[in-house]
Amino acid sequence: MLILPFFLFSQVEDTTIVLYPDIEAKFPGGPTEMKRFIIDNLEYPKIEFETIPDGRIFIEFIVNLDGSIEQVKTREEGVKELDNAYIEVIKNMPNWIPAEVNGVKVRSRGILPFRICFQ
């Protein structure tokens, strides 16, 4: 009888998100490849750019144990079409190299800042 409850709990996936891992999650190929991916895949929406204030967009997401990305969102809402363009490019990224704590892969939160400046 005591084995059954232990068995049931051992099947539950760990949903803990580590905020300060020993090794941060990273894009495969590093920052240079990530920048290239974003430039190649970001599609700006068709909106009047003159009406968009300069500023920053912060995109938050979770990197899972397998490197997949989920729960992509902006920290603060700005211009909806522009926010959605950045969210989509992050959602379409290849799997990241997951974060680690004591040599064990963990789920972690990522935040990417984007500077918005139209000239």
TrEMBL record:
One of its GO terms (biological process) is transmembrane transport. It comes from the Bacteria. One of its GO terms (molecular function) is energy transducer activity. SUPFAM superfamilies: TolA/TonB C-terminal domain. InterPro entries: TonB-dependent_transducer, TonB_C. Residues 41-115 form the TonB C-terminal domain. One of its GO terms (cellular component) is plasma membrane protein complex. This is TonB C-terminal domain-containing protein. It comes from Brumimicrobium oceani.
